[in-house]
Specification:
Layout: H1 2-66, H2 83-119, H3 123-192, H4 202-207
Length: 210
């Protein structure tokens, strides 16, 4: 009887140990998954931030080109691209940037849902979720700043386009005025070089005052 009790107790302890080990391994796997989610989001945010920095650099090149300063084209840019072509490239990159930020925002929300589902009612994992929420809040703030930077980049490119349109209009007006002046000059030159002949006898010419 006593031996049976001892065996039962040992079996119960062994079972408890197995359950505790399984629970520990499960929680460890969940914590690793949460950490992986955070690392993935951090990479997204850093990549987007770097992309914004690159776009800012290229926008500076467009401004330098407009000011007549020599600039070096980066990889992927059109060789000897005109300011208009550079602005078109910039708009494409800003569009891509907007799509990336929107996608990052969607991934942020989806990741939060996954982590919340993992934690369930587990107290220790809820502490992890609280930390994760702090990370998400920080990332959301970064994303909002990125959106503001994108809006600023778009406004700057639009301003450059507006200046370009104005310059084109002024150039067209100057060209028209130049053509008008050229035509008037040609007309005056023709008039000054025109020779008139009057035919008549000497008496007829005297009567006409010639």
């Amino acid at each position: 009887m006593r031996k049976t009790f001892v065996f039962a107790a040992v079996a119960l302890i062994a079972l408890s140990a197995c359950v505790s080990k399984d629970k520990y391994e499960k929680e460890l796997a969940q914590v690793k998954l949460i950490s992986s989610e955070k690392d993935s989001l951090l990479k997204d945010v850093m990549a987007t931030t770097q992309f914004i920095a690159d776009v800012n650099t290229e926008l500076g090149k467009v401004r330098d080109a407009k000011a007549g300063k020599p600039v070096m084209g980066a990889a992927g840019e059109l060789p000897n691209a005109s300011p208009a072509e550079q602005r078109a490239q910039m708009l494409d990159k800003i569009k891509t940037l907007t799509e990336r930020v929107n996608a990052a925002e969607s991934r942020l929300a989806a990741s939060r849902q996954r982590v919340a589902a993992i934690t369930g009612d587990n107290a220790s994992l809820k502490a992890q979720l609280t930390q994760y929420d702090s990370t998400i809040t920080a990332f959301k703030s970064i994303i909002e700043n990125q959106k503001a930077e994108i809006a600023s980049l778009s406004a700057q490119v639009s301003a450059l386009q507006g200046e370009n349109v104005t310059l084109k209009a002024e150039k067209a007006q100057l060209t028209t005025e130049k053509e008008t002046l050229t035509s008037e000059k040609a007309a005056l030159t023709t008039e000054r070089n025109t020779v008139y002949y009057v035919i008549g006898t000497k008496d007829e010419l005297r009567k006409k005052g010639i």
